[in-house]
């Protein structure tokens, strides 16, 4: 009898211990999901704010926090997001990355985040999906903002070429050339790199006191042809401004040759 009672007591104790552990595990899981939800809300709040007011230190801090959370994960999809975060931080720290380069990484992270949402715990599935969409949205808006800025710069060059070039300050002209060269020479597009090379030649000709009008004329005409060609192949929004710029460069070159 004593043995039977002891067995029942042990079984009861084991059952209670199992229930306690299960309860603790569920509690830990719930707490973990709650922590994730809070972190997701913090990140979404940052993305919803005016990002121009976000300091590089704060941005890198957010990236570090998420990288540390994700890079130890076993799932390849999550590891890939961590790798993209690392690349994003490198872009931000370099101060050389274009808005489009940062935009592409953000869009990639956003798409990957949205894709893993379906595999996430039920409690955080929706916040993860929303975060993915928000990252993609920020990436797209950043790319559009840089597009708008570049189009404005093209228009500014067009306005300069439409003025009396004799009144144009050489220093201002060289500054404009530098902007375009810095933008184009880093790109993979071979045609745009050729334009960058032409801009470099134009700058050298403008700075050289012995340059003749014919030297500058030839460079401008060639740049005009290349720019107009680039305009034909450019994406929407850039076609018109680039083609106008190309025509004006060619026309300016011809006028100098007269």
Number of helices: 9
Binned strand content: under 5%
What pattern of helices and strands is seen along the backbone?
HHHHHHHHH
Q: Give the CA-based shape.
A: elongated
Rg of Cα set: 29 Å
Main beta sheet = none
Helical content stands at over 70%
Runs in which pLDDT lies below 50 for 5 or more consecutive residues are 19-33
Overall mean pLDDT score?
75
Structural class: mainly alpha
Structure explained in plain terms:
By secondary structure, the chain is mainly α. The protein has two domains: 120 residues, no CATH class; 95 residues. It is 83% helix and 0% strand. About 6% of the residues have low confidence.
Characteristics:
mainly alpha, single chain, 258 residues, 9 helices
How do the strands and helices of this protein lay out in sequence?
Blueprint: H1 2-48, H2 56-70, H3 76-94, H4 99-116, H5 122-162, H6 170-184, H7 190-207, H8 213-233, H9 239-257
Q: How would you sum up this structure in a few lines?
A:
Helices cover 83% and strands 0% of the residues.
């Amino acid at each position: 009898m004593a043995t039977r009672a002891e067995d029942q007591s042990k079984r009861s104790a084991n059952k209670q211990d199992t229930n306690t552990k299960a309860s603790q595990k569920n509690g830990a899981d719930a707490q973990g999901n709650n922590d994730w939800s809070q972190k997701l809300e913090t990140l979404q709040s940052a993305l919803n704010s005016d990002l121009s007011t976000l300091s590089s230190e704060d941005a890198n801090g957010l990236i570090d926090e998420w990288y540390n959370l994700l890079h130890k994960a076993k799932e390849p999809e999550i590891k890939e997001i961590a790798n993209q975060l690392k690349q994003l931080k490198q872009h931000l720290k370099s101060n050389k990355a274009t808005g489009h380069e940062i935009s592409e990484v953000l869009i990639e992270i956003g798409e990957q985040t949205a894709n893993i949402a379906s595999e996430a715990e039920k409690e955080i599935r929706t916040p993860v999906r929303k975060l993915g969409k928000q990252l993609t949205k920020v990436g797209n808006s950043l790319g559009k903002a840089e597009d708008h800025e570049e189009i404005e710069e093209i228009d500014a060059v067009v306005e300069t070429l439409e003025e009396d070039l004799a009144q144009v300050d050489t220093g201002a002209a060289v500054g404009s050339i530098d902007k375009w060269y810095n933008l184009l020479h880093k790109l993979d597009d071979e045609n745009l790199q050729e334009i960058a090379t032409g801009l470099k030649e134009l700058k050298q000709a403008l700075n050289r006191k012995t340059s003749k009008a014919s030297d500058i004329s030839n460079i401008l005409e060639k740049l005009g042809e290349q720019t107009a060609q680039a305009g034909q192949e450019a994406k929407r929004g850039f076609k018109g401004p680039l083609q106008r710029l190309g025509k004006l460069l060619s026309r300016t070159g011809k006028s100098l040759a007269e």
